[in-house]
Amino acid sequence: MIATDWPATATRFLALRLPPGADLRGAIESAFAAEPEAAGFLAAAVGSLELARLRPAGRDDAIEVAGPLEIVALSGTVSADGPHLHLAVSDSAGTMTGGHLLTGARIRTTAELVLALAAGQRFHRPHDPATGYNELAFD
């Protein structure tokens, strides 16, 4: 296990409300890039999508899930190397689909997000030969 910690007082919260048509992942990346902190995570997320673009577990290709969809869960970390975000959505029948959030997931009515920004920390994603992926590291 690799771990880091920081005092709760070093965490700042940024609330976002995204309008219809906005790209969910792109908006998170842009909001983070505009802030001085180098480490962040999603503290809360609710809203709806007209389309979700996901990469399910064990796959290299994207799937598209047509809406209307409710955001059931959105979690992950954000760094200057990019985000690692997982999204779960449900359709009008309550069927859930989830995976890695990709660019192109469009907001339907709104998305309300709270991004936590950690002062004094730096998240980055070097290549991990054990997994073959760029994995989270801390400074």
TrEMBL record:
<protein>
    <recommendedName>
        <fullName>PPC domain-containing protein</fullName>
    </recommendedName>
</protein>
<dbReference type="Pfam" id="PF03479">
    <property type="entry name" value="PCC"/>
</dbReference>
<feature type="domain" description="PPC">
    <location>
        <begin position="8"/>
        <end position="139"/>
    </location>
</feature>
<dbReference type="InterPro" id="IPR005175">
    <property type="entry name" value="PPC_dom"/>
</dbReference>
